């Protein structure tokens, strides 16, 4: 399936970069979704807003962040919003975790304050870094104000950055996610594009419950490279465009697992079935798309 459609969202998974599908109309906003780029660069389709759901780097050194930010800065999107992932090691700086664990990845300590400042300073070149915070923006001067919340945490796996234990610790963290139009998390919710190695669900039950309550218009994540893709969840059975629905996108660009190999060989990074995902959202709840 190359595209998904609902009255308020159109998702493109496969497309020709030289002949991109048009937006459904002038009142639509185009979001381009990335995740798990790990310092790699590749062609990215233009759009109004670039969303990146973490793992900008391999192991979170300042030089890797600089490289990733240079690439993002060169992309044409007027709005660029990014979060961290479990590989963005030195951004996990708010407790003693980095001090206790840096030697597993880094020969010497990174200056975490300098790394954080570099990410904050990226706003000067149009890149907004979110870490458990909300950002609001307008694509059109007289258009809707979008809200996006960034949440870098993921369930515990080998004690990487921004890991939480499933159960009370994770429940408490996830309960702080507020109502938002767009949710960026690094990890997926349980049973939504979360099949990882061993053909098992790797997503988070608590996050699934929170998303079903908040019902954002768009939820973008990555982390589980093996299940790149998208789906649209209808929260009611009504056909009304004002009723709640969520477009879920696993935007991981790093090929891994069965999807990463075709009859023509290994899928190139960020290409083919691992291309950036295009999501067009209507700016008004009163819209109806004839699909």
Automatic annotation (TrEMBL):
InterPro entries: Calcineurin-like_PHP, Metallo-depent_PP-like, UPF0046_metallophosphoest
SUPFAM superfamilies per the UniProt record, alphabetical: Metallo-dependent phosphatases (SSF56300)
CDD domains: MPP_239FB
Entries under Gene3D superfamilies matching the protein: 3.60.21.10
A GO term, aspect molecular function: hydrolase activity
Protein name: Calcineurin-like phosphoesterase domain-containing protein
Record-annotated Calcineurin-like phosphoesterase domain positions: 46-226
Domain of life: Eukaryota
